[in-house]
Amino acid sequence: MGWPRRILVTAGLATVAAGATLGLGRFSYAPMPDRADLLNPDRYPIQTAFDVLGRRVSRAEADRLNGTEAGRKELSAASGAVAIDPAMVERGRQAFYQETFGNEVFLTDVMGMLDGGLTPTQVALAVAKLGGQGTTNLQVAMARDVRIGDRTYRKGELVPTGLDVPKGGAFIIGIKTFSDRGHLRMGITCALCHAAVDPGTGKVVEGAPNTDLNAGLLMALAKNSSAYFMHASVPEADAKPAAEPEHTGSTGTGLALPDAEAVEAATKVQVASWPPGSFDSSADRVTNPTSIPSSFSAHGEPYSWSGREAVGPFAGLSSLNNNVHAANSDTTQLAAAAPWLFGMEPERYLGIVLRGAATDAFRYKPDGTVAPSEVLRRVDPTPASPGLNSYAVLPTYPATNYVTDNGLFTSVSGEPVNHANNAMSAFQNLLHPPAAKRDSATVQAGRAVFEKAGCGGCHAGPALTNHRIIPAAEIGTEPTRAKAGAKMEARLSPPTLFATDTPFPQPANPVIVPVPLEGDKLAQVQLAWGQGGTEGGYKVPNLVGLAWTAPYLHDSGIAVGPDSANQLGVPGTLYRGIAPDPSNSLRSLVDRDQRAKVIASNKSSDTARTARVTGEGHAYWADAGTGVSRQDQDALIAYLLSIDTLTEPAATP
């Protein structure tokens, strides 16, 4: 479909939406590109018939197991088995692009993403101005002035959002728009972070991280950034009011809340410090963003920057998919855990989150007669579960569970619990980046340097990871990030999940499946979470698709632009709207002299220091100091950038 036709379709959809508002009252839309619009339409073949709590079962093995009663039990839903077939994969792709699990309510009505500096009208105008050419970084004009720290974004000023619109498209990838009886909402899907437009062709690369998504700035420009204060270093949230405490009116004893303007201003500064392409997924009240990972996930377990998503279906990948929406896109569900996570009573916590809500019905009014929890209860679209999103709830909620941070599984009515997350895992495990251009002789020489330098000691296996967690002190990275999950140990339950055929909404007495975790596996998971007396750690990342994932290191700190002399670190690249160059950035990963310059640049930036982005750690070199010539270093980089599929063709995704 050419862009003129798509623009007309956009107008048509708007007309339909208006009609739906007057008639049925509801309408929603999220784009999903055709295969012809993809730069990487090819996928690994489906070779795994079942996933059983992270164990891959081939079709041949499944046939053998189905021949015995014990084998059929192992492949049953009551054992946590997930059957994989083309229909499952297609459901995963659809969910990847279009499933929000209801987060549009929190993002719109509580956080006010559409009521701050950027508005739907300005976004629509920005897309229309593209004229079908597409972009990797939609520039949207400010609708009003917004102050963030010492910086004021002025009305009319263009803001680099990092939102992607493919060539010939008229919609933003990963954004789902809802019209609900005249009320416009915006939700996000996995594709917002884990699909990207190729700047050369304008086509979509499924699974590539959106490395310039300016998530932190977008949240800072929202009306109620305070709804995300628990993901930032905001001591103002602990302060008691200097004057007479505010009261709920429902208790008569008072609900003391901190100064609203101080919390809002501090939260905006903290989240705005995140480098584009980063996100702070840890509700530990410390600003510590990490790079958005790719979804080239086959054999890349464990998942997340620390490897904390390591058990359960698809070796933790379903857990990662779940927690994006069960823990990060709706902070109201954290109220029950606020006493041990944040040292706050649930009402005080919800009071801070809801006090500035964009929609009046969602707003807690300190001078009114309704407590924050009652405000939430009255507007909750999912009254059978905590928070605002669509959740199946384990009996152990809100205790931490190594399969789910909080005992919640985002689920879709009418299909099994957690099904969409499992389907997305099956889909993601088939993705690989576009074929890389390579000089075979140079790549072969680079592989030899890779082995000689000892890189294969950690980067081994089909996806070039040994699946291990490295202690923070050993890897040498910023230490506070690795402790992000430590407080969750205060309320810890055994890892469990629902049987995979459990319907949603869930029945009164669902089947609960225990997830085995013992020995070295338990020790590794505790290290990933910063629990069990450890100081936390970082996972060994897989190396498939490095050409699409710059900047490097868990904190995005190793970033170098096309001008390697002057575009150094996040201050010289991401903060200036300059895309890191993969080759130059990889050189700074393996060359200590170049790395020192990058670290110095990061340390010179107040914003980078706020975000705790340093570029330090992973002091494993392939440079003159280890006897590697510049020519060999070039070959090593060429090899690393050539990795576009699993290195062991027989591996089963």
Automatic annotation (TrEMBL):
Domain Cytochrome c stretches: 169-273, 441-644
PROSITE patterns: CYTC
GO molecular function annotation: cytochrome-c peroxidase activity; electron transfer activity; heme binding; metal ion binding
Coiled-coil regions listed in the entry: none
UniProt-listed InterPro entries: Cyt_c-like_dom, Cyt_c-like_dom_sf, Cytochrome_c_Peroxidase/MauG
Keywords: Heme, Iron, Metal-binding
Gene3D superfamilies membership: Cytochrome c-like domain
Protein name: Cytochrome c domain-containing protein
Species assigned in the record: Methylobacterium pseudosasicola
